[in-house]
Recover the amino acids of this structure.
């Protein structure tokens, strides 16, 4: 079939309008621009629209009424929408009726979408197939009709009448409609995801990422800003804009659905070995990402980490109490992984921070509590440490006897504008932790190591609180964890010292309270005092002594009222009407302790800290004026520290050993008589009990002065 240009078509239409033909003239046009050109050039004609003959908003046109109206018009008319209505309804017969309709005036009928129908009619009717009755413009794309269900939130024409109006106006490309009529030559989109693909042609996120209901929500509101990590909109945003965070990027790329994404946020780290080059970065990114997570949300992941066996600890963080407990479980029986705690569980690393005691028993106490803490944490009582406890339990060997009592030291301290704070069962094992945390919190501390009264029970160790005349606070939480942790920490239920996580949290709460009190000027100083300590290793030992006492053991068998019939154990001391055990045994008749125990006379039960706490001068800084030093067979290595502030009692700790400084004004010289090995060293710097900084230095061999044989 010959096609013509718009110009040729308009010439033919002009001839028709001046002819004596009494029937309509059909113009087959597909292209939207050509359609608009013809409508524009025929603007002098009266327009009739097929859509006006739809009885309701969603009904096909009434063709009978249309034909009657068209046959009676007295003005030359341009009929719009006829071809589109036939195309959508499939009612091709009405075209034959229209072509044979006798008209009182001329009618030009623009037909889009029915090129083949008109061709077929031309083939069947030679009289109709003439330039004076019909013309064909070039074939081309007409329009694409997409029908959506009413439930989908898509802007669309409401019903066939509005659809025809849109097409009559020259609508091309994709036209959306919502209709229940059985249209033909339309595409049906029944899902929200399908609708999104139509409304956002560049949308490339796979349909599997969300459920149908969530795609419906997105279709109704496409905003992806301002949502949290676990929200499906956040996931969708990350799918469309890949994150820079290395861990989250891996999660998003691997997740093929929202449900998978929610799980992978927790689980993806399990895909990597701790020895993988990306593991450290992935671990840190994940820890930061899940900083505010809750125990119930992390529980499944914590259970899954058990599959990593000896590597389990490397997959855990200190973000939740559940993980903190799992970390402690992972350390059961081994100390090999303790060096990793600074990254995994910094507070636990600070708990292991060695407090350096002073006095004639300094070395003994420092080593004892360092070993005690590590054995408590790793849940083991080594034969060597147990023997040390037994040796110290014998009469004449008990080092706590040389310590001052709590009352002696307390009486010697200034109490002006001072608050007394009693934490029940706070032993010296926590001195290093408090010392380390104080540096971070800006607290100045002075730790006095004292001894409790025997037996180490509260009733005999609370006079300091009862007689205090000023402001005072008493907290029992730490003692309750040790005594009443049956539900979560009972040794018969779990052998792991997971209660330690709660103990550190209780101390943290106090230190934060202390900061607020001091900075708020509610007090000038806080005295942190305890009644006694407690022993975990005595619980682990699970050993009753062989002596049968007339009275039953009390306080989990750690002490027993004296009577004439008693046979004294060489590991027991008699104090205040009680036999008190200084080893890890318990007297018969005493109930087993569930978590930790006190009442006895081991160092961890008797030796307690009395800590003076004030605000620290944040202006104090120290620097090393000798970052590179030399040493030889005859020459000791030494460094010189400098501080603008006047400091007293400066000392450093290198590789766990204490070195005292010699003051020279604002300079402090430290000599390392035993450091001969070349290399880089790190030194913690203290003023008294306060950790005030850290310095680095490098030891080099003094060249040309020594031979290798001189060193050995």
């Amino acid at each position: 079939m010959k096609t013509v240009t718009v110009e040729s078509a308009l010439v033919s239409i002009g001839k028709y309008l001046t002819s004596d033909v009494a029937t309509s003239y059909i113009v087959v046009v597909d292209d939207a621009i050509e359609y608009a050109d013809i409508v524009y050039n025929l603007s002098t004609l009266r327009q009739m629209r097929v859509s006006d003959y739809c009885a309701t908003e969603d009904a096909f046109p009434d063709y009978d009424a249309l034909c009657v109206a068209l046959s009676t018009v007295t003005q030359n008319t341009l009929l719009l929408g006829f071809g589109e209505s036939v195309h959508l309804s499939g009612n091709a017969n009405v075209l034959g009726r229209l072509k044979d309709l006798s008209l009182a005036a001329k009618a030009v009928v623009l037909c889009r979408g029915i090129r083949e129908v008109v061709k077929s009619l031309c083939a069947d009717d030679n009289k109709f197939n003439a330039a004076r009755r019909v013309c064909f413009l070039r074939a081309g794309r007409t329009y694409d009709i997409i029908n959506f269900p009413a439930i989908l939130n898509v802007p669309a024409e409401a019903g066939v009448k509005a659809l025809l109006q849109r097409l009559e106006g020259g609508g091309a490309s994709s036209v959306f409609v919502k209709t229940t009529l059985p249209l033909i030559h339309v595409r049906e989109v029944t899902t929200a995801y399908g609708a999104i693909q139509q409304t956002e042609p560049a949308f490339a996120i796979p349909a599997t990422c969300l459920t149908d209901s969530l795609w419906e929500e997105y279709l109704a509101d496409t905003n992806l800003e301002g949502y949290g990590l676990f929200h499906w909109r956040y996931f969708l945003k990350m799918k469309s804009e890949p994150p820079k965070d290395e861990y989250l990027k891996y999660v998003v790329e691997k997740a093929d659905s929202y449900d998978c994404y929610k799980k992978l946020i927790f689980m993806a780290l399990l895909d990597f070995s701790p020895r993988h080059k990306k593991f450290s970065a992935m671990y840190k990114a994940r820890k930061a990402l899940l900083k505010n997570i809750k125990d119930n949300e992390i529980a499944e992941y914590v259970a899954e980490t058990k599959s990593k066996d000896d590597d389990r600890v490397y997959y855990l963080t200190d973000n939740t109490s559940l993980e903190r407990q799992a970390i402690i479980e992972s350390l059961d029986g081994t100390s090999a992984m303790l060096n990793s705690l600074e990254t995994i569980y910094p507070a636990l690393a600070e708990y292991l921070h060695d407090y350096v005691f002073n006095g004639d028993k300094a070395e003994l106490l420092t080593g004892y509590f360092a070993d005690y803490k590590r054995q408590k944490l790793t849940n083991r009582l080594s034969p060597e440490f147990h023997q040390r406890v037994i040796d110290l339990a014998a009469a004449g060997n008990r080092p706590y006897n040389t310590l001052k009592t709590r009352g002696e030291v307390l009486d010697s301290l200034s109490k002006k504008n001072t608050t007394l704070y009693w934490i029940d069962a706070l032993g010296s094992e926590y001195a290093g932790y408090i010392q380390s945390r104080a540096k971070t919190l800006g607290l100045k501390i002075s730790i006095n190591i004292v001894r409790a009264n025997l037996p180490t029970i509260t009733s005999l160790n609370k006079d300091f609180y009862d007689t205090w005349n000023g402001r005072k606070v008493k907290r029992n939480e730490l003692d309750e964890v040790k005594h009443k942790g049956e539900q979560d920490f009972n040794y018969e239920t779990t052998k792991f010292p997971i209660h330690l996580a709660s103990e550190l949290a209780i101390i943290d709460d106090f230190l934060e309270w202390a900061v607020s009190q001091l900075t708020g000027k509610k007090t000038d100083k806080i005295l942190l005092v305890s009644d006694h300590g407690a022993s975990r290793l005595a619980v682990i030992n699970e050993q009753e002594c062989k002596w049968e006492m007339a009275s039953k053991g009390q306080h989990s068998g750690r002490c027993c009222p004296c009577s004439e019939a008693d046979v004294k154990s060489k590991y027991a001391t008699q104090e205040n009407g009680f036999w008190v055990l200084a080893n890890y045994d318990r007297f018969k008749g005493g109930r087993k302790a569930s978590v930790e125990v006190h009442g006895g006379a081991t160092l961890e039960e008797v030796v307690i800290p009395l800590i003076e706490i004030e605000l620290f001068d944040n202006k104090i800084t120290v620097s090393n004026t000798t970052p590179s030093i030399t040493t030889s067979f005859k020459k000791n290595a030494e460094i010189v520290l400098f501080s603008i502030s006047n400091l007293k009692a400066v000392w450093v700790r290198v590789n766990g050993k204490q070195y005292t400084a010699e003051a020279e004004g604002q300079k402090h010289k430290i000599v390392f008589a035993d450091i001969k090995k070349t290399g880089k060293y790190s030194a913690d710097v203290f003023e008294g009990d306060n950790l005030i900084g850290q310095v680095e230095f490098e030891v080099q061999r003094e060249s040309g002065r020594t031979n290798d044989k001189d060193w050995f």
User: Anything to note?
Assistant: Residues 617-711 form a domain with the Immunoglobulin-like fold (CATH 2.60.40.10). The first strand starts at residue 3 and ends at 4. The mean pLDDT is 90.
